[in-house]
Amino acid sequence: MRHGKYPFIIGFLVVPLALYLVFVVGAYVQMFQLSLTDWSGYGGFTYIGLENFQKLWDDPVFWIALRHNVYLLIAMPIITIAMALFFAFLLNSGGRKAGGVWGSKVYRVIFFFPQLLALAIVAVIFGRVFGSDKSGMINGLLPESWTPWLFLADEQWALTCILVVLVWQAVGFYVVLFSAGMGSIAEEIYEAAALDGATKVTLFFKITLPLLWDTLQVAWVYLGIAAFDAFALVNIMSVNHGGPDNSTQVLSMQIYLNAFQNSQAGYASALGVVLFFLTLTFAALTLRVTRRDAVQA
Amino acid sequence: MSVTTDRRTLLRRAAAAGLVAVPGVSFLSACAGSDDSGNDTKQATGEKSADNPLGIDPKAGIEIVIFDGGLGTKYATDVDTPLYNKKWPDSKVTYSATQQVATTIKPRLNAGSPPDMINNSGSDLMDFGAIVKAGQAADLSDLFAAPSLDIAGKTVAETLVPGAVQQGTYDGKPFAVNYSFTVFGLWYNKKLFEKNSWTIPTTWADFTALLDKIKAAGITPFSYAGANASYYMVRAIMTSAAKIGTEQVLKDIDNLKPGAWTNDAVKQAAAAWGEVGKKYANPSHLGLRHTEVQLQQNQDKVAFYPCGSWLENEQAASTPAGFEYAMMAFPSVTASDKLPATAINAAAGEIYFAASKGKNPQGGKEYLRTMLSKEAALEFTKLTKSLTVVAGAADGVTISPGLTSANDALGKAGQDVFMGYLFDTWYKKLDDASREAANQLFFKGGDAQKFCDTMEAASQAVAKDSSITKFTRS
């Protein structure tokens, strides 16, 4: 194995690495370059220093979008993880004996279904569910005499509607992920604790949760990154591209609008740079804050 | 560097003058992430003659891209291309259609190998102002100066309705053919109105009195779709503003003149429409899409709908037998409106342009000349139920009740037909702001002062932004 070891390894790495360099690193490098220009998206450009960032700082819509991203960043992982943990616990050890509740194998498949649908399709479907007149699914189910709920057309609730869909779509995957994590916790630990008289709640908080910590950490980072995105849902579901009155505006939508609609590719790149650092900071912070010594299972 | 001089000619001139081309030149015409290979492509040209005024190479093929949307593509495949090939049998037309214009065309423009003639339209259209600024669109001066294909003794420009060339003119040079001619107004079901003996109002008092009656009949009197078509409402507000204070109001807005949005005409128009919103709006329509509201109108749940003359064709499949589209001019807002109640906003739209850096820009222009022939225009109107900018091409031909009604309104308006505004295509950012402001005005309380202030601020922000190319009109 000593001879030709490196060519062998390199042979495997060269294609994925090249793809990564061209389509990820290359794109990022160019984004940083373009963020310093006034490129419209067509033809030539000139370098304008940090003017784009200056403009961004003064742009009220940027701050609105950022605030919404932060809201999603906090609400979405918490709700998703809490629900996924609850469901996963029920599926794995919610039953009378050691196993999950009755029919847990079927539920596991059903929970995973939303994950199989493309996000765009989910958005279109929920656009109909949240329809703002009687043709919407929820409003259609309400009594005829009620005034329809506006959902996405109501600036107070529009972002919450988006949040609901984000959570609905994500929960299934994390149920499966946490189930797998819980499955790897040794049965004897539970048995020993149960013999000592621990209730299901105690089992969950004292045993399941600590032993699942690594998985939770990963889930939090993934969900956080998803919360920074939310583009497909906002683009398809929201009224008037992030409206009404910017109530569903997010950074990714701003990038899209500026790059592809407003012909301000340079400015959009500056937004991209900000989003890049936000995501990076978030991931680093999460991993650091939640770091714990691994508990041997 | 002028947008009409490509790098090739520039280098040739530089060489002729015995100069060495400076490196800066290549940078000017270069674009991000792509080399400049497009400019090294040989562009096809031929001898200019009376029969070939644009000097195309009769053997060189052309590539055209048509937007596959409300107008369909039949007019291109079944009318324009056969007509073009009748004259130029050896020039092969490579045709494709797309709904995603920017997604398919923008990379090709930036890579220097664009199609020769492009129909820039639809929800994924490209910012045409930016294309002109980047020198990607061919100057169409020679096309408009060339003789018309089948109207003897006139140049192409002379066969078009007033304002048609101007609509595609950027800083004094024409770059786009705005082919279809749209009449804007308030659309209603003629049969429903006849049944209830509702008469068409011309004053604001009559208009609101009628809205009251319609509301009493359990019908939403006036509506539009807030989710994706609020620019129909922008058009309504702007049309009223122009009627109050003439088209100059809109010109000032287009020219980003300070105070253009806070002037009295805009304020009065916004106040009038805000009042309509406050009294008669169905709040759930803010969350609906244009197809949904239009369908509701077809079901007689909505009485008036502000739209352009494409509406009838767009709704053809869902219009029931008891529904007959008709259009009325926006009523006067005040007794002292400067334009009469019959004044109409009608404008050329639907951009077709020849790419300047393609293989055969002259061929692309020749295709446009074919489209602007009387024969092609008439067939286009028959197929799409849309008028074209070729003046009088469809006169005397009965096409559909809605189009006839729009044509009548045009006739009644006489000289008082105005082009409207261009800020929505010039400054996409301002367009976005106006859509949101219109929604806020109509669905959220009708605060006219807020509408004017928001738009004034947005307009001045665009004016101050050096990265946005400015245009002016007069």
Topology of this structure?
The complex is a heterodimer of chains A (297) and B (474).
Chain A lengths: L4 H30 L16 H8 L1 H34 L10 H13 L2 H11 L7 H5 L16 H26 L3 H9 L4 H12 L1 H17 L1 H7 L13 H11 L3 H25 L8
Chain B lengths: L6 H10 L6 H7 L32 E6 L6 H14 L5 E6 L2 H11 L5 E4 L7 H6 L7 H5 L18 H4 L1 E2 L2 E2 L2 E13 H6 L8 H13 L3 E3 L8 H15 L2 H7 L9 H17 L9 H9 L3 E7 L2 H4 L10 E4 L15 E11 L6 H11 L2 H11 L2 E2 L12 H13 L3 E2 L4 H4 L1 H16 L4 H17 L10
Helix pairs in contact in B: 3-15, 3-16, 10-12, 10-19, 12-20, 19-20
Radius of gyration of chain B: 23 Å
Main sheet makeup of chain A: none
The quaternary organization reads as heterodimer
Strand-pairing-aware structural class of chain B: alpha/beta
Largest sheet of chain B: 10 strands, mixed
How much of the polypeptide of chain A forms β-strand, as a percent range?
A: under 5%
Which spans of chain B have pLDDT < 50 for at least 5 consecutive residues? 1-39
- Tell me, rounded to a whole number, the average pLDDT of chain A: 86
Structural class of chain A: mainly alpha
Count up the helices of chain A.
13
Q: In angstroms, what separates the terminal alpha carbons of chain A?
A: 35 Å
What is the ordering of alpha helices and beta strands of chain A?
HHHHHHHHHHHHH
